[in-house]
Amino acid sequence: MKKLITISFLLFSINFVHSDDHLPQFFPMEGVQCKYNKGKDLDDLLKVVTKWNDYMDQSVEAGNPNYSAYLLTPYMISGDEFDFDFVWLGAWENFASLSGITQYLSEASDIQKAFDKVSTCETRQLAPTLNVRTLNESNENTEGNIVQIRSCKNIGTPQETLQGYAELSSRLDAAEADIGIWLLVKGAGSPSNSDYDFLQMNVSTSSAWGNTLEEVWNGNAFQGMELADKVDCGPSRIYVGRALRSNNN
What are phi and psi of 7, to 5 degrees? Predict the structure, then answer.
């Protein structure tokens, strides 16, 4: 593993832009839900990640697509709804880089077999993803980050949804809350009965998360800011996240 300290792999300078002349720019992200095999744990996974990173370094140096990875460990989720030990989030810089999928499977089958010995991953989704708010404090965060994920529906048009998040970002600016926000649109691999349009993923340090909740519940920091008329989201699921590989290496 090359770096385990940042979420910067998600920060591709893909800024939220929405006007008459500019469309939002999406990038592909995959989510893989996994359970450790009997007798295996995080230490075993990280040993394989080290070998995988060595392969990726060589592949990228040869001019092949880069790929970033981030590990989410459940902390506050409903066990009745979600049955896995970790989520592997992977991201490419653009959709053209998806050519790296078949290249990896053909070149690194031994590494994939090593991953398969550690864990069983039965579900995988690909989501067109939009960065609507950039996380600033991440480069030296050795403790990992707090990751909040909610399933959401558009109430109005997608444009109205994006405008709602632009307003939310302004409120977070006013509260000096260092929280990054990504929207993951439902894509390939999603269950046919999934009842959402996109996932909202918030990322922050634990201190920023706690301070923001304090302002929300006791400081009236978001009084007058309502997303309810634009977005319908369910409860947050909380994970502890750590970077496994960054496109910024």
Answer: -105, 20
The pLDDT value recorded for residue 216 is 78
- Which pLDDT value is given to residue 223? 59
Query: Which class does domain 8-245 fall in?
Result: alpha beta
As a whole number of angstroms, the distance between CA 175 and CA 222 comes to 8
Mean pLDDT of the chain: 84
The tokens for 52 are 């995988």
Give the CA distances from residue 149 to residues 47, 106, 122, 146, 184, in Å, rounded to whole numbers and listed in that order: 27, 33, 20, 10, 10
> Cα dihedral angle (6, 66, 10, 110), rounded to 10 degrees?
-70
Of 3, 164, 146, 137, the closest CA to residue 74 belongs to 146
Give pLDDT tens digits for 126-173.
999 999 999 886 544 567 899 999 999 999 898 899 999 998 888 888
CA angle 3-41-86, nearest 5°? Answer: 70
Name, in order, each residue with C-beta under 8 angstroms of 142's C-beta and a sequence gap of 6 or more. Answer: 4, 5
Residue 207: CB atoms within 10 A of its CB come to 13
Give the residue-averaged pLDDT of 181-188: 94
Overall average pLDDT of the 33-46 stretch: 97
- State the DSSP string of 118-138: HEEEEEEEEEEEEEEE---S-
- The Cα 228–Cα 168 span in angstroms is 11
91-100, 131-140, 166-175, 232-241: range with lowest mean pLDDT: 131-140
CA–CA separation, 167 and 6 (whole Å): 27
The pTM score is 0.85
